[in-house]
Amino acid sequence: MMQPLFFLSALTAAAQDPIPELEEVLRRLTPEERVTRRVTPESMVVKHASPAVVFIETDQIVESRDFFGRLMRREASGSGSGFVLNEEGFIVTNNHVISNAQGIQVSFAAGVDEAKYTADVVSTVPEEDLALLKLRNPEGKAFPTVPMGTSSDLMIGEKVVAIGNPYGHTHTVSTGIISGLHRNVQIANPRLTFNDLIQTDASINFGNSGGPLMNINGELIGINTAVNSQAENIGFAIPVDRVMLVLKEQLLKPDAYNAWLGFSVLDDSPEVGVVSPHSPASEAGLKPGDVVIAINGQEVQDMNSFRFQRLEVQAGQDVQVTVKRGRKERGFSLRSWDWVDGLLYEDLGLTVERYVAGRRPYVQINRVRPDGPADQIGLAPGDIVDGVKPTEGRLSRAWRVFERDSFASLIQALQPGTALEIDVYRDTERLRGTLVTD
Q1: Do 254 and 272 form a contact (C-beta atoms < 8 A)?
Q2: How far from 125 is each of 26, 129, 258, 304, CA to CA, in Å?
Q3: Residue range 159-247, CATH number
């Protein structure tokens, strides 16, 4: 019977013990302990990740129509966020942040890097609202990067941190939780439908677009991409696993390369699979089975690093390629071509240059690959291409050829083995032949 009385008296005594004042607690702490006392998991995430978050400013040309239907153009500026994916300066952001941009400027947080960089668009996937940029980096700086996480194990209710630049307020941080997964959302501007988005109540404003959504371990789990303007505290992010898939299959695919070397690698390994005959790679001595371990002195560790190093190669550049052949390492020097020459040489066995007769532009053949499709039907340097016509498929109509780029884009859209009628002028004669694309 004494236990309740003893318990009550113990509670009464505890209630009478004085609670230490804050000033008294702080007096007992060293300056270092005072700082440690203020550290939160969120502040640790920001310190860890924010050096790689960038502020993106764009100069844009906006088109509209006036009351009379006349097309009007005006200059405008835009802004958004992004993050550095690898130390060479490749940046991922939303496509709508840089859409129609005439110029792109990128800056880091104060104290991280005071320089302002010009960025170039490497590739975009508008339907996924993703874009890959590259900082111009003549000094060869190594940039801070965002630690990668996964979106495969996300939990509703777990804490997240969003970093971005809403309304020009650079490197603003907001926190919240994951409030939903696998959301399907329609966005009016740009007009897109997203599937499988992360929903969060962390404040995401329009300037946060392209910025990272981090978990409490400081790992990237998504890209802030949309805000629901009709509801408060609802924002959405593209899951990082989806971003990495788009990066691998579309943003970093060979179509994004602006230089041609004459070899391709396997889908899942930097092992040389195909070497085009009479190409820079072939002339240098590369062979199928060689494993690329460095490009221009930069180590190739896996397929992602190969893709990034490959994107760095510019047309008309001397390129050093180091491979492992058997147990030995070998180095090769080759000079890259631009992608138009490379694609036409690989698929048709020819290269072309611009040619103008009177006021009309054409393309003129200036190189023919021995035993290639063009050579097999007798095409020769000096022939002027008038038009082409695929014999089957959705592009099976006659196409006038005016420019190198449009010619290459047409050929790129064809399947290997497509029969292609080609009309050329040779001196005063008009000739026609049919070749089969490689």
Answers
A1: no
A2: 54, 6, 17, 18
A3: 2.40.10.10
* CATH superfamily placement of domain 255-335: PDZ domain (2.30.42.10)
Alpha carbon 154 to chain centroid, angstroms: 24
Which of these is catalytic: 107, 209, 276, 336? Answer: 209
Tens digits of residue pLDDT in 276-306: 999 999 999 999 999 999 999 989 988 988 9
The one-letter amino acid at 239: P
**Residue carrying structure tokens 């005006």:** 74
- Cα 154 to Cα 239: distance, rounded to the nearest angstrom: 10
| Arithmetic mean of pLDDT over the chain | 88
Q: Do the two domains 50-135 and 344-436 of this chain adopt the same fold?
A: no
Question: Helices then strands (H, E): number in the chain?
Answer: 11, 26
Does residue 96 have an active-site annotation? yes
Active-site residue identified among 79, 96, 203, 341: 96
50 as an active site residue: the answer is: no
Please say if the pLDDT value at position 232 is more than 90. Answer: no
- Look at the domain 344-436 and name its fold: Pdz3 Domain (2.30.42)
Burial call 6-41: b when 16+ CB within 10 Å, e when fewer:
eeeeeeeeeeeeeeeeeeeeeeeeeeeeeeeeeeee
Indicate the SS3 state at residue 419: strand
Question: Does the active-site annotation cover 209?
Answer: yes
For residue 1, the model assigns a pLDDT of: 47
Compute the distance between CA of residue 332 and CA of residue 237 in angstroms, rounded to an integer: 44
DSSP 338-364: EHHHHHHHHHTSEEEEEEEETTEEEEE
Q: Structural domain boundaries of the chain? A: 2-47, 50-135, 159-247, 255-335, 344-436
| Catalytic-role residue among 129, 347, 383, 423 | 129
The DSSP result for 181-250, as a single string, is EEEEEEETTTTEEEEEEEEE-S---GGGTT-EEEETTS-EEEEEEEE-TTSTT-EEEEEHHHHHHHIIII
CATH number of 50-135, picked from 3.90.1580.10, 3.40.50.80, 2.40.10.10, 1.10.10.10: 2.40.10.10
